[in-house]
């Protein structure tokens, strides 16, 4: 696909076939991620990949429980209360793979760099016929000292972009994008 076609075609996918994603494809999307620009060329990232469904289910459940406990406290979660109250809700939508982009430090520069890497990764996934979705909800649990210990991630690293990938099942909703508001063009 042409680049602009990929940019226009990428959409968050929340329904996946159970088929595993080939290791070579995961390697390709990570290779695309590290081509992103970075402040001072620091390339301040590491990656983690989880393809074990039991591990994904476990982190999903811990995320669901955590967010459910915050529903009354964090106003912005109110609209999601029913999802989190449902024990069947899987925050990773049963995707067969999760790729997490970690910043090696919590600086705004490093976390911004990781978001650029994430978009490269999602575009590359689209080009390869894979769906993807950034699962920001999962970052709370991925960033707990307990989970970092479980995954061998140093305390100072930050899970910035948890991206699920897999083969889309069914039609992919394409939310309307607002036209750009150009506020100056001198
Ligand atoms: C920082 C960030 C966090 C997100 N977190 C979630 C999430 O936790 N769960 C989810 O289903 N989608 C999540 N999304 C996907 C957005 O809902 C989605 O990008 C948005 O609705 C626009 O749709 P599109 O990606 O199809 O263009 C997240 C996206 C971003 C950029």
Q: Order of helices and strands, N to C?
A: HHEHHEHEHHE
Here the CATH topology of one domain equals NADH Oxidase
Give the strand order, joined by hyphens, for the main sheet: 1-2-4-3
Small molecules bound: flavin mononucleotide
Can you put this structure into words, describing what you see?
- Helix 2 packs across helix 5.
- The model has no long low-confidence stretch (mean pLDDT about 100).
- The chain has a domain at about 5-50 and about 95-165: NADH Oxidase (3-Layer(aba) Sandwich), CATH 3.40.109.
- It is built from 7 helices and 4 strands.
- Strands 1-2-4-3 form a 4-stranded antiparallel β-sheet.
- The protein is globular, with a radius of gyration of 17 Å.
- It has about 190 residues and is of the alpha+beta class.
- Helix content is about 40%, strand content about 15%.
- The structure holds flavin mononucleotide (FMN).
- The site of flavin mononucleotide has 9 residues, from strand 3.
- Flavin mononucleotide binds near residues 11, 12, 133 and 137.
TL;DR?
The protein is of the alpha+beta class and 186 residues long. It has seven helices and four strands; from the N terminus they run H-H-E-H-H-E-H-E-H-H-E. The chain has a domain at 3-51 and 95-166: NADH Oxidase, CATH 3.40.109.
């Amino acid at each position: 696909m042409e680049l602009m076609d990929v940019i226009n075609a990428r959409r968050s996918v929340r329904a996946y076939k159970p088929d595993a994603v080939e290791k070579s494809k995961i390697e390709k999307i990570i290779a695309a991620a590290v081509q992103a620009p970075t402040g001072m060329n620091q390339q301040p990232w590491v990656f983690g990949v989880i393809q074990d469904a039991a591990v994904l289910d476990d982190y999903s459940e811990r995320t669901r429980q955590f967010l459910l406990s915050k529903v009354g406290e964090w106003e912005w979660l109110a609209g999601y209360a029913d999802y989190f109250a449902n024990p069947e809700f899987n925050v990773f939508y049963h995707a067969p793979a999760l790729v997490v982009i970690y910043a090696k430090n919590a600086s705004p520069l490093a976390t911004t760099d990781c978001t650029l890497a994430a978009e490269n990764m999602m575009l590359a996934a689209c080009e390869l016929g894979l769906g993807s979705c950034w699962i920001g909800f999962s970052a709370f649990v991925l960033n707990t000292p307990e989970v970092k210990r479980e995954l061998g991630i140093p305390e100072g690293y930050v899970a910035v972009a948890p991206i699920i990938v897999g083969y889309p099942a069914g039609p992919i909703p394409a939310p309307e994008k607002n036209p750009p508001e150009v506020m100056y063009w001198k």
